[in-house]
Amino acid sequence: MAGRLGQATWLEYLTGSLESGAAFYRRLAGWEIAEGEGAASARQLLATADGEAVASLLDTTGMLCPMGRTIPTKWEVYLQVDDLDARLERARAAGGEVIDGPREAIGGARLAVVADPTGCPVGLWEGEGFAGRESVGAPGTPVWFELMSMDTRASRDFYQAVLDFDYQGMPGSESEPGGEPGYFTNAGGQEATSGLCSAKEWFPAGTSSFWRWYLAVDSMEEAVAVVREMGGKVLDGPMDSPFGIVATIEDPDGATLQILEGPRG
Questions:
Q1: Could you tell me if residue 255 is inside a domain?
Q2: Exposure winner among 42, 118, 250, 261, fewest CB in 10 A?
Q3: What region holds the VOC domain (predicted)?
Q4: In 2-148, where does DSSP find H-type helix?
Q5: 76 found inside a domain
Q6: How confident is the chain (265 residues) per 10-residue block, as mean pLDDT?
């Protein structure tokens, strides 16, 4: 297993407009995107940054979600597990539902997607021959992952039970009744690999919890220009944060993500 249990180790882009999505992320992230050796599907492309695999892009044309609806264009986040079958049993026991898999993934890895008790889908990834990405930080790579939760307590209980997360409140993030932190990390200090944000007050009633990720960019100004030139939208920002300049964007086919220009040394 590459990385720690629960570390976000893989991304999958689901789209009915595969070529459009590939063109956009080639420009924005600088990814090489092509048919990958060991791909689990002929309709799957592999994205690499400086030779390291970071994501797959899957053509969902004609595919339906478990509820029978067309699958929207979106990003799915996969968290590393040591034993997929055992962790799926934990997920069921903690009130989750398996909505996809288990099935073979790229390079012989195994994956499944579960819905947590808030209805949020999250992928679980067991990498044997193919363990997923290993490095972060350079432009074109994922640098952070977080769960935007509409029910913080339910989310915390689920991920603690399934993936042994040891949630730590972020100092200065008090926003809940009684001084409860509004933001948690899944471990303390440098061990943290993802965040949990109390997001109920930020979104309309009925919004489902969701995972989102941050793409490192070398220049926010240039990245925003590419987004707009390629037909995407800037939904929020750019704005300063303790971690750099951040913006929320939507690609031309409707998938959202964060882009981050880190602090200059």
A1: no
A2: 42
A3: 7-127, 141-262
A4: 18-29, 84-93
A5: yes
A6: 78 94 97 73 82 90 73 93 97 96 85 95 82 66 95 96 94 60 91 93 89 97 98 96 94 97 79
